[in-house]
Amino acid sequence: MLQPKTPDERILVDTPVPTSSLLITQQPNVTKDQLKVSYGQLHYKIDYDFSANKLDVTVVEGKNLPAMDRNGMSDPYVKVALLPEGKQRFETKIKRKSLNPHFDETFAFNIPFAELPSKTIHFTVFDFDRLSRDDQIGQLTVPLEQIDFGTTVDVWKHLEPPEENADSVRLVHPNNEVLPDISNIVPLRRQGM
Fold it and tell me: What predicted TM-score, i.e. pTM, was given to this entire model?
């Protein structure tokens, strides 16, 4: 820990300064809004088929997803669940090396119309990782009580921050590239040393 030598230094050492203030001071043209991390956007459609008692949810595409891989890209896919039970779950195909993936996949949830207001659709966007646990890019919840089922809902929404484990660390590079979570990597034993 840094020890102050003079009374003036004590003020500097003991005064907390938000990191964003330091960044703005060092880079005067950067605003606080520009320092916010973007998790990208998700385009989805929701429609209810009254004759079949089914809810159709289409994951259309993602836009401006953060790079999660070293190559500056992501391998995104989307999990769609109907909450609170979460028993009905679906998953899109993985779109390799893309920050703007096109999915165009529709999933049908069998549910009576009267139950819709008590349900929520939960979208979770992941980055596929072959050698470790898939990284969560962002998420989105859509309470169905707010939906007008008289027409097809066709919406773009900003993704919200991912749910984090208590022991997980999320690092963000200055160019908005999210660095991978290394907390789940198992070190290999050194041999021949």
Answer: 0.68
